[in-house]
């Protein structure tokens, strides 16, 4: 790491978006200061650094803020291109493919998962489940296309899409207990199921990943809170 | 429409009339000086070719470059064009500048254009909510311009191309639906930017004819309303 590079990450322990940044920093071998934010009482620094969204993660590089997990991960790869492995391929077409699937993870797959668990009506949740199945199937195809028989979206080694999807893995596992749903079912998406195991086992990844039990407890608390709010609102 | 006499262009852009997303790519290709062939789709009657090249989203724009598989999603395509071809940079060279440009393009897509579209085709409380969200985003973009000609500074760049809907499509939608998001005197910097953008020599040829655009959205009113109704059940 170049001398004089100060990295500070504003985060929240359960956030899969924050985790993505931590995974990228770990893969690149970059050290940083981590600041846990209380999202009910956001710090001055967070509000000043992300005035548009007021959200975590925010990465501060020598005091300059970068926001949005996908943008931060790309930034880390570009600003520290000489340090550690490359997360994003060099070839323009491969890069476009990686960006396409990274965007898909959030715009389509995560959106469908959210709808399937948080949709306000039975109909919405059912539609969310249907879209989730399509999204996961598409991602299975993507892994086949991008990985070309290798374990990761990045091929032999972890890349941008792996990090973007990998940040969600803790919650994917937690969902089995919280919602009784198995997003990466080995029967339906064998490549993704195998990918989840391989990714989680990597030395740079394993120590950073979410504690699934802690997420389950947190998820149960959120569910209880949601139910109480719905009951209180007289729904 | 840009056409070059032999050899035939290595680049094909699949577009549809009225698409601001396909427009982004045309401007990007033109700024880079890349010759291309335009293939126009009727999105109400999608071709096998489109469904083969974009099986995931089934929409335009789609870029075909030589014998490489298709590149889809307008901002992904614009970055691809920036990196695959020589010519003036659409995104800055430095990582922080690139992160900033991506942030604003992302903001425009998610926080501005999404609610803008929804505000046009919904009613009542939902419509008010989307309109409010759009206006908040427009105010943020207004501040972001800070009196510069373009979001990129002196030259038209990535964020300006991303914001193209605001320059040419917004007032067409307002006219067709009667939903006024921009009242007189509001967002002066954005309105100035819109004039700069639409009169730029790399842009004006690719703006769909305004009367045709009005007719296009007017004809699609029912279809867009029901599409939005289905999407908004959240």
How does this model look, in words?
The complex is a heterodimer of chains A (235) and B (234). Chain A starts with 6 loop residues before the first strand and ends with a helix. Chain A has helices at 16-28, 44-49, 69-79, 92-118, 122-147, 160-166, 169-178, 190-201, 212-232; strands at 7-11, 33-36, 58-61, 64-67. Chain A has 235 residues and is α+β, with helices and mostly antiparallel strands. In chain B, helix 4 packs antiparallel against helix 5 and helix 5 (124-145) crosses helix 9. Helices cover 56% and strands 8% of the residues of chain B. Chain B has 234 residues and is α+β, with helices and mostly antiparallel strands. The radius of gyration of chain B is 18 Å and the shape is globular. Chain B is built from eleven helices and four strands. The A-B interface holds A 52, 61, 64, 66-68, 70-72, 74-75, 78-79, 92-93, 95-97, 99-100, 103-104, 115, 119-121, 123-124, 127, 138 and B 56, 65, 68-69, 71-73, 76-77, 79-80, 83-84, 95-96, 98-99, 102-103, 106-107, 140, 233-234.
